[in-house]
Amino acid sequence: MNNNLYEHGTLAMLMAGKLSGTITLAELLKHGEHGIGTLDGLDGEVIILDNEVYQADETGTVNRITDMDATLPFASVHHAMNETTLTLPKADFNILNDTIVKEHNFKNVFVATRFHGVFEAVKVRVAPKQTRPYPGLLEIASNQPIFEKQNVSGTVIGYFAPELFGTVTAGGWHLHFLSDDRQFGGHLLDFVGTNLTGTYQIFDSLEQHFPVSDPEFRAYDIDLASLQADIQAAEGH
Amino acid sequence: MNNNLYEHGTLAMLMAGKLSGTITLAELLKHGEHGIGTLDGLDGEVIILDNEVYQADETGTVNRITDMDATLPFASVHHAMNETTLTLPKADFNILNDTIVKEHNFKNVFVATRFHGVFEAVKVRVAPKQTRPYPGLLEIASNQPIFEKQNVSGTVIGYFAPELFGTVTAGGWHLHFLSDDRQFGGHLLDFVGTNLTGTYQIFDSLEQHFPVSDPEFRAYDIDLASLQADIQAAEGH
User: What is an example of a Pfam family matching this protein (chains A, B) (predicted)?
Assistant: First the structure.
């Protein structure tokens, strides 16, 4: 077992509207029992904790996914190992960016994090399922449901990626949230938490997996010149 | 054994002058018996064929490297598998770019190639060994020895990388040459060959490995805004 971040698909691919699922959940889970992703057609936000797979959907509902034939266009998973304890007396994105990244010198490496506790406020967005012909992520991003909750107990899970990889995957933090009661979750836009505890794990490698047998993947075009700006517009936290 | 391209270090790192060796040859060869790279301090052009390691140095000499403790800042290797035969009645960079990439639809995938035969003309450059404080690749590129040879029998080995990864590694073709008599080699700048035969191999994944324990790697800064243009100026083929 390697200390690798396994990623299937690329952010560039989603930006270009290549949204069809190209890896099964069964195959994905071979590469990690923790992770995040989205289902076929950009259907919601996937959270994987200890091999349990959840999907926050666009209605604000969280579903347990047990169909191992379900497919994903984009997902990141890892095996928990070499973890270091992370204690966050107070946490929000500013603290993650300014304190945690700098203190632990994350900027040039891929890192997983997972932390748990009571959150005073959590704001998430959920990707709404698309139908063919698929639009690109930039178009979808302007019209995504946002959900908020106060005083919610839950887990933040996700990754930090170096800026250099900010077109291959989401640069900086890419985090999802799932409440302890499995009723609330999504792609983390904003949060405030106190006395959170968890772990981080610095990866030796990024294992970037491609759907090489998928004709649509082989044929898709990207405009590198506009990609960076489009991602900035589409993503943010 | 996975059908992965294993890459240690990044092109961005070299551009920023992070040139010290961070993986041993012994460790590198665990991940592939074929590949290319450069030695500690950007010392020459490494060619690995069937576990035999050669270095073309800045004097135009080719050395066999048997010291498994030698280190490399940047290298790409793979295990030969799933290979497809490649026949090139005539070959040069235009044919590789215009015919081969398009015919086999390589643009979005990582590919290895290896082809052999008599080359009418071969033009190579060789990175000259640097000393600390290391300059960046852009500065070094303006002053690199170039060698040419006619009617030479040898092997071209290297990789095609999608444009999206053109700051992580060299985008497009990155090829090295080694003559059959092991007397001539380097980083391929130009070539003409006829009736060449070889193979190509499409990878499922890029396994991008980082020297995460190296303080210089953890600390180095890149200017993403200028990186693309600097690489263009420094690289070419």
Answer: AAL_decarboxy
